[in-house]
Amino acid sequence: MVDDDAPFLMAVSRLLRAGGYDVRTYASAADFLARRTPEAAGCVVLDLRLPGTGGLEIQTAVTDGDDPLPVIFLTGHGDIPTSVAAMRKGAVDFLTKPVRKEALYAAVSRALEQDAVARRQRTRRRELQARYDALTPREREVLAHVISGQLNKQIADDLGTCERTVKAHRAAIMSKLTVASVAELVGFARELGVQPAGATCP
Known about the structure:
Elements (H helix, E strand, L loop, with lengths): L5 H13 L10 H7 L8 E3 L8 H9 L7 E5 L4 H9 L4 E4 L4 H33 L3 H10 L5 H8 L3 H15 L4 H11 L10
Parallel strand pairs: 1-2, 2-3
């Protein structure tokens, strides 16, 4: 939680701890950005007006990285244009001081669930990317042709090789990607954003 109002910061952190949440407090944007552990799960409860770097700038800093965190604004200085800007940038909620306990708990619960889902998705994508990175350049070429629906003979003709070599590449692809069927292979490629041979990016 980031807020330069020390009594308020203490009061709300106590309220959150009473609700069973682990809370770390920061008195300024600089303090938060210096001590933040990027890979740590959670969410950021954030004042809008802070000394130096403001709340919207912190929101950008924590949502644009490789391990973004959901942001909840809790401020006494909210206005409609600012709240709209914050929500468009992905804020989970925009709460005003003083905040009701139920509203705060509900927002934090949504933020933590959002973070958990996003982390599972990122972990899954990184696992898929690691498998894909294990393919040789030639295997990636063959993969692109397989998911476009081509038969081994067609792939061999397109790549200027023999059908036996294509079969060997296909077997290696299936093994490295740990898939058991072409349908799974297509699903893997779609999830990772691998384009079929001959496809054009929009």
